[in-house]
Structures are given as structure tokens and as C-alpha cells.
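Fold this sequence, please.
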Amino acid sequence: MEANTAPRHIAIIMDGNGRWARRQGLPRLRGHQAGADRLEEIMRAAREMGVKYLTLYAFSKENWQRPAEEVHFLMKLLSSYLDNKLPDLKKNNIVFNAIGDLKDMPEEVQLKLERNIRETEHNTGLMVNFAFSYSSRWELTEACRVIARKTAEGLLKAEDICEQTVSDHLCTARIPDPDLLIRTSGEMRISNFLLWQISYAELYVTEKCWPEFTKDELQAAILDYQKRERRFGRTEPEKAGQTP
């Protein structure tokens, strides 16, 4: 695989931890631990394959509705992960970022997220964006509120609002839109993830659950992506600058 043909930005809906655990005859919480353990391999593989941005759907706003025991476990797991993996992030020149309604997170986790962002912000390698307490509808609603407020204050003119204005007010304002969206566990839905940003992303769904999504699985997704013709609404002759 040639790095210069890899998608610049890959987004992944990491689904299937619980189902994987059930199939192994394990408690559901063990699936979340296995899913966390899978992260390092995928981040390393993404770097090796030339990916510049990796956005991972880790915890949605809807996930707060899960049983309290499971949510508590996930927050403790995240807190430990943020501590244990910070040295690796620095060593591997990875930029850590978090998007979502982060004020929903426990205060301890918020502080650790801020620390990891701050201590890796000058790195120059792969940027990994973790989506925590994220909802695309929440994100778009918040963007509309800010734009409306700026318009009311005279900082924006209504006639000047365009697609770029909206993009500039999203969590991903400084990040290019995903080229490829991967969903694990075979589910055929987007689940309220990056609805604006994936308008022209290529979609790839695998039956593999997230804990079994290996480097080889990532490579297969990228190879599939490389075979596709991205036209962005144009015909092939138009894309090539020719007359249809």
C-alpha cells in the first residue's frame, strides 16, 4: 500500500464490544476492555499507512442512558487509559484531541482530557480525535446557536452565512472532513456521528466487532477505499475536466 494514496482522514464507529464479549462467553464489560486494548494497534497501523487524522466514536450522548454500572466502568476505563497512554502519545508524536459535549464527562476525566490535549498539541504526527459524549445533532444545534448569536450581535450578516460558516463552528473546525467512514459489527447506520462532515465520505462496513478489528482489517478497508472513484456529484468526464 502506498501511503500517498491512503485516505487523509478516517473516522471509525467502534461498535460491537458487548456482542464480542457475549460470543466469547465473557461479561459485557470485558468487551469494553478488549476494545480499549485494540486502540493502540489501530493507531499504530494508521500512522504506518499514511493516515493523517483518525476520529474514533468512543462514547455518544445516547450512551449515558446505558446501565449505571456500565457507564461507571467506561469512565474508569477512560480515566486509566488517559493516564497510561500519555507517554506513548508523546513518544509516537501523536496529537491527542477530544470532541463532543465534554462538560458531561466526570470532572476527573475532563481534567485528564485537557492535560493530554495540552501535552501533545505540539506533536506533528497523526491526530487522533476521540468523540466523547458526542452527538452530531447536538453539534449542529450548538453551531446554529453560536451563528445566530453572532448574527444578532452584528458580527455576522445573514446573507454571508454559507457552508463554510457552519463548518467553522463545528467541533471539527480545524480538521478536514473524513474521506472514509468505517463501522464495525455489521450495523448499517450512522448513529448520529459526523452527519455534516461525512457528506461525501466513502462508507465501509465490516462484520468484525471492534475488539477483533485488526491492522489487517484496517488495511482491507483502505484497499477497498482505493478502488473507488470519488466523484463528489460529478460524472467521470466532468471530473477529468472533459465534456460528457
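The helical segments are 17-23, 28-48, 68-91, 107-120, 136-152, 163-167, 215-226, 236-239. The radius of gyration is 19 Å.
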